Amino acid sequence: EPEVTQTPSHQVTQMGQEVILRCVPISNHLYFYWYRQILGQKVEFLVSFYNNEISEKSEIFDDQFSVERPDGSNFTLKIRSTKLEDSAMYFCASSRFNTGELFFGEGSRLTVL
Amino acid sequence: DQQVKQNSPSLSVQEGRISILNCDYTNSMFDYFLWYKKYPAEGPTFLISISSIKDKNEDGRFTVFLNKSAKHLSLHIVPSQPGDSAVYFCAARDSGTYKYIFGTGTRLKVLA
User: How many CB atoms sit inside 10 A of residue A48's CB?
Assistant: First the structure.
């Protein structure tokens, strides 16, 4: 069964460093998302991406964040200069749109020291 | 502004009985509603969804009911099994932005 894959599963970084989280969405899906969950809190929307551009972004998704689809399969989230409060699980998700179903990857745990 | 709310943070149910998880929403623009099961440090696992034009969808032990007039949906798990113990999130898709909004989750514990 097709699935969303994410790498790395865990990344530890120093405050101020750049981080890139990678995702391979399900191949025939058209909408891509990044969500995050700070420990014990709710799953929060960061950004959605369709047709090679951002379609929606939250207040969390400030100038330190960017997304890219560099080729036909990968979808990346970059955090330019990490802060302590960026420590969270980051989830990539993809949707075919017409069924409404949204499928998540296993997540990338980011720890900022 | 909590558009999707799960008012029960936790629920305990005996094995074999029915688990009923509830979710309320405020936005009339939602067109799909979804339920997810989640374990710590893992991604949400899609369980079942329902379109806003329907009032019930069933898949095996899982049934989702949608009451649009009350802006309420529920997930029924029958019979409940110990392996169902997890945090359950409801989510809704905004038909204008295609953004999915999540509730705060309900921790279900199924007792053997």
Answer: 23
Helix (H, G, I), strand (E, B) or coil at A86: helix
Q: Which residue has the tokens 């799909």?
A: B32
Does pLDDT of A50 surpass 70?
Answer: yes
pLDDT exceeds cutoff 70 at A108: yes
Examine residue B44 and say whether the peptide bond preceding it is cis (omega within 30 degrees of 0).
no
Joined together, the tokens standing for residue A12 give 């530890």
Mean pLDDT score of chain A: 93
d(CA A1, CA A67): 26
Question: In chain B, which stretches have pLDDT less than 50?
Answer: none
Report how far residue B62's alpha carbon sits from residue B56's, in angstroms, rounded to the nearest whole number. 11
- Across the interface, whether the CB atoms of B103 and A56 are under 8 A apart is answered no
The Cα A24–Cα A77 span in angstroms is 12
Mean pLDDT of A65-78: 92
The alpha-carbon radius of gyration of chain A (Å, integer) is 13
- Sort out which chain A residues have CB atoms less than 8 A from B31's CB and list them: 100
Contacts of A102 in chain B (CB under 8 A): 34, 46, 91, 93, 100
Chain A residues with beta carbon closer than 8 angstroms to that of B96: none
Residue A99's alpha-carbon distances to A32, A41, B23, B93, in angstroms, are: 14, 28, 21, 11
The residue with tokens 């989750």 is B105
Confidence category of residue A28, pLDDT binned at 50, 70, 90: confident
